[in-house]
Sequence to fold (246 residues):
Amino acid sequence: MSAFDDLVRTTLCLGVQEQEHWLPLGCGFLVSDRRLLWLVTSTRVLERAGDQPLTAWVSRDQDRVLLGLGTVLQQAGLTWLRSERGDVAACVFPMQPDWEVKAIPLLQAASTAQSQPLLQVHALAFPYGIEGFDPRDAFPLVLPGGLAGVDAGRERLYHTAPSLPLTEGAPLLLAVGADAQRQLLLAGVTNGPLRPAAPVPAKEIPATVAGLSMATPIAAVIQLLSSAAAREQSERVLARAAQTED
Fold:
């Protein structure tokens, strides 16, 4: 399996089950921190779900199964964690050996100094609402763009990678280094396109504004996973795993 295949497998479809239909709500991606995997997404995805339990499509044995995240978290006594700094949320991901998923190590996170305008970025997102794509068996597309600006005080990255419908929560990757030694670092969590402050006819919105999207810097995720609440959940999961091994 190539490095690209591994990268694609870090991104998951998130949604809710409504009777016989599955409704997509956004994206999420997996990161590894110490001995645990965390599922990271945008708080906007959780807000869309409301009281309904969130689910995720997971690859297994060349097939896809629907994981009831809400049920798994409730049974384990765990909850979603929400950042106070940015529009991000995370939960412990219940990994199984036969699931064909990968995680991005947090050691591959881009620093604030590395996140500079003019650098190339890529978003990995599922093409919801586009003819010919079924969320149940679709694969994430690589959406290229550039880093347009960094607002460190407001915890925002501005970029020009295309924003497809319902793709908040996808990973934003930053390309650094020369072509021969180029690396992809985790820069942030996508939060969708920028919208005008007041209602404006679409034909009057300048292309430079219509093409801009926003993301929360990965620093907000790192701070969230370093919080007391995250440590408490980590210790609980690791203690339960140790008891199972014994």
The first strand starts at residue 11 and ends at 18.
